[in-house]
Amino acid sequence: MRKVQLNRINPGEKLARPIFREDGNVLLGAGMPLSERFIQRLQDLGIDSVYIEDALTDGIEPNETLRDDTRKNAAEAIHKLMATQMDHPGTKGRAALPEMGRTFRAVFNEILNDVMTRKDIFAGLSQMHTHDSYLFHHSVNVAVLAGIIGIAKGYNRNQLEDLGMGAMLFDIGMTRVPRELLNKKGPFTMQEREIMQRHTTDGYDLLRKQHDLSLLSAHCALQHHERYDGSGYPRGIRQNEIHEYAQIVAISDVFDALTSSRPYRKRYTPSEAIEFMFAAGNTYFDLELVRLFCSHISMYPVSTSVVLSSGQVCVVARNFQVAVHRPVVRVIREADGTVPAEPYEVDLRDQLHLTIIREV
């Protein structure tokens, strides 16, 4: 399979991976032929690319970290909690679930088990979801990314659970933000920005009241917009004044936000987002944490279509943690536009004269 921009899809091509709704259930399943009507509907829902079945890339599968059932359960739990907070004003200011800690500890342990059964701790997030489900799937992705960094740092199980639950619930304060503000496409006024920024303290106030949730997890909500140089909010603290869990969540939050399609901008490619993260080292984030994070992120995820400096169009087939910028690629179109009689693979670690110049 390969990832293709939706405006390059030909009607009749089949979906290779499902597309998820906000509650974690499947909107369109794998194997579904994409008619013109479906393609237009997906564009209306804010989806800019999908995975399609393709004989030329047969056998290439994205490095998805989570099983579909694990993602569904996690998104469903977050959706239930946040939807209850948003739709029932009487619950605001207190926990919507009597056993929030137990619920999300079980959910995160499912995520952790999926991550720890992989041969390497290398992030793969290939799911597609609608704009309306961004908040829920974003929380799942942040938990996955934070968990991977916690494992890389050698955290024990209790530390991983505290970090993971903080990562899943870090944006719970967004349930206090008016819906029209969450969906606004233009710039915020000063008053709107102040309302939006209150989600950090609102989230902390909600989580710290939970008897079955660590106060360290609650600090992920409070501090995930603090910045290493003191330029963040709500308190403008800096460097080691920011708890390491919150720093990890902040890095995971920004990376996943950059690489997600939003109503007001196009997504960044992983390589562009990694470049931003390094540039923000010791300004927004601790540089050593950024280095650790980026060493576990694929610059060119498997199934991504790329153009080489030779002009050949390829699909990424395999990644290597020790050489994240030099994957194995499968050539699907030569520089002159012809399709090879038999697709073949090139290991960019051995072909140093070739470089990836862009994604397509």
From TrEMBL:
Domain HD-GYP: 113-309
Gene3D superfamilies in the cross-refs: Hypothetical protein af1432 (1.10.3210.10)
InterPro entries in alphabetical order: HD/PDEase_dom, HD_GYP_dom
Pfam family, one: HD_5
CDD domains tied to this protein: HDc
Keywords: Hydrolase
The protein's name in its UniProt record: Metal-dependent phosphohydrolase
UniProt organism field: Paenibacillus herberti
